[in-house]
Amino acid sequence: MNILLVDDDSELADLLKTYLEREGYRVTAACDGERGIAEALSGQYSLAVLDVMMSGVNGIEVLREIRSHSQMPVLMLTARGDDVDRIIGLELGAADYVPKPCTPRELAARIRAILRRTQGSLADGASEILRSGPLTLQPARRSALWKGSPLELTSTEFSLLEILARNAGRVVDKKELSEQALGRPLARFDRSIDVHMSSVRHKLGVMADGRSYILTVRGKGYQLVRD
Questions:
Q1: Total domains present in the chain
Q2: What is the DSSP letter of 181?
Q3: Of 102, 112, 109, nearest in space to 7 by CA
Q4: Host H or E run for residue 89
Q5: In terms of domains, do 135 and 101 share one?
Q6: Are 149 and 97 members of one domain?
Q7: Helix (H, G, I), strand (E, B), or coil: what is residue 177?
Q8: Does the first or last residue of the chain, that is N or C, have fewer Cβ atoms within 10 Å of its Cβ?
Q9: So what's the pLDDT on residue 122?
Q10: Under a CB-based contact definition with an 8 Å cutoff, are residues 100 and 107 in contact?
């Protein structure tokens, strides 16, 4: 599995690269945003780890450029407590984020969680198709149709929509969504699920009566309207 690491902190990059290679990944490190973009768009990588705070072309600009051409999962490294960069990253389609400083072990765990939910597996049944109203999902292929047309989703958006589709008509709490779609427990004040869900809602539009296809049940979670 090829991983791209984009970070201008060479000492940290070397540490993370060494650890991830011990975990069995093939890691390429890019020391600036411009090289990071070039490597990311080469099509060689299963996932990118991208630092937000870089000199020159910063991580947000790199992510925006990647998303213009590719749906490769991107894990953002953000400054601890910097909610603005984190939310912007999620809105632009980052799969998840890890606050810095982080341990290599935590980073590796987040990478495994993202890859588990994005790679798809024939063992899950390549022919499985989920349908709910105008939505058609093929989980193993990570493909989605909305009203018969391809629906462009980030990896995390697809995972959230798949969970809702499997539970159409039932409220799925945010704790379950975080654990299954993000691969981590829901933290206090964490708005990641809300940001991703807002993006999915925007892509689905509204029903004829103006209601959203995804309902918010205050204090509980979200529900995909059945048919």
A1: 2
A2: I
A3: 102
A4: helix 83-91
A5: no
A6: no
A7: helix
A8: C
A9: 39
A10: no
Q: What is the pLDDT of residue 155?
A: 83
Q: How many CB atoms lie within 10 A of CB 54?
A: 22
Q: Which residues contact 90 (CB under 8 A, 6 or more apart)?
A: 97, 192, 195, 196
Q: Which of 154, 163, 149 is nearest to 199 (CA)?
A: 154
Taking alpha carbons only, the member of 221, 199, 225 closest to residue 212 is: 225
Mark whether 101 and 162 lie in a shared domain. no
pLDDT for 123 equals: 46
Q: Give 125's contacts (C-beta < 8 A, 6+ positions apart).
A: 140
C-alpha 178: how far from its chain's center? 11
Q: Tokens 């989605």 identify what position? A: 144
CATH code, domain carrying 207: 1.10.10.10
Q: pLDDT tens digit string along 27-67? A: 999 999 999 999 999 989 999 999 999 989 999 999 999 99
Q: Would you report the helix, strand and coil content of the chain in percent, each value rounded to 5?
A: 45, 20, 35
Nearest residue to 36 (alpha-carbon basis) of 52, 15, 20, 16: 52
Q: Do 138 and 96 fall within a single domain?
A: no
What's the whole-model pTM score?
A: 0.71
Instruction: Give the residue numbers spanning the domain of 211.
Output: 122-224
Q: If you ran DSSP here, which 8-state letter would residue 201 be given?
A: H
Nearest-10 crossing angle of helices 59-69, 83-91:
10
Smallest CA-to-CA distance from 200 within 169, 183, 175, 177 is with 177
